[in-house]
Each structure stands twice: as structure tokens, then as C-alpha cells.
Amino acid sequence: MSDVLETIKSRRSIRKYKSDMVPQDKLGKIIEAGTYAATGMGKQSPIIIAVTNKELRDKLSAMNAKVMGVNSDPFYGAPVVLIVLADKSRPTYVYDGSLVMGNLMLEAEAQGIGSCWIHRAKEEFESEEGKELLKSLGIEGDYEGIGHCVLGYTDGPAPKAAPRKDSYVYYVK
């Protein structure tokens, strides 16, 4: 079994994090992995916003919670949020951004960092508050939020993998 397959099989969505910050060298490798995701015709429609600033992280958490209709932290205490958005002018933008998210989570696992894909980025960045936030960061363009990849050190044991369903694969010979 290859190291890649082992990483794929061991990666789990983590829903409880320590407050310790992810070291910059590990964060850089995780982000780099995201930039090497396959994209339609190699056009690289996604962008990644790496948020380690606690004030902005907390603002994003509150925006996400508002969309979800809760007051809790949808980022499970993770200190890092990687926002993946993609250029809506590309017909493959949702798939492109989804592959970026997958690469981010796999490299996080390889680096010993917990991760989880958090939804509602689309709704966040379609809101006036989200559009203003992007503008304040100097990000212009017609982007759609694909997801948030939250990162941090796992606080507790990782969940076990569910058994794979019998009808997952159909062979045609």
C-alpha cells in the first residue's frame, strides 16, 4: 500500500481542536498541496485565504454560525481557517475548489494536523458582509465560497473509519 493510500485511509474529519497554532512550515506545506490540485484545463480557478488572525477567524465563525442558525463555533475551536473560493467564470469551479479542499485535508493529515471541511462558505461570501470582507482583503472577482478547511491539533482521539459499503464499486469487465 502506498503512503498516499495510507494517508487517505487515515484522514478523518476532526471536530475538537486544541488552541495551539499550526506551525508556519506545516501550514505552508498544506497550502502548497492545495495549489497543486487538479483544475479544469489547468486554469486554477480557486484561491485560498489563509486565516490565522484570531479576530478574523472569530468573525468568520460568527458569520458561519449565523448562516447555520446557531450561536456555537462551527469551526470546533480550530485556530486556522483556510477559505477556498473559486472563480465562477470557469465551468469547473466547484469541482476545482473541491479538489483543492481534498488536497488541503490530505496534506494536513500527512503533517499530523487535524482538519475538517466546513460548509456555508457560499452563503457567507454571497452576503454583503462577506463581499465587504473580500474587498477589505483586496480580493476582487466573481468568486463563490467552496468551503472552509479548518486546521489544528486534534484534541482527543480521531474518529474511526466507517466500514465501506458493499455497493461502492461496480466492475464492468
TrEMBL record:
Keywords: Oxidoreductase
Pfam families registered for this protein in UniProt: Nitroreductase
Entry keyword annotation includes Transferase: no
UniProt cross-references to InterPro entries, sorted A to Z: Nitroreductase (IPR029479), Nitroreductase-like (IPR000415)
Sequence ranges assigned to domain Nitroreductase in this UniProt record: 8-66, 70-153
Oxidoreductase as UniProt keyword: yes
Single Gene Ontology MF annotation: oxidoreductase activity
Family designation: Belongs to the nitroreductase family.
Name of the protein: Diguanylate cyclase
Species assigned in the record: Blautia obeum
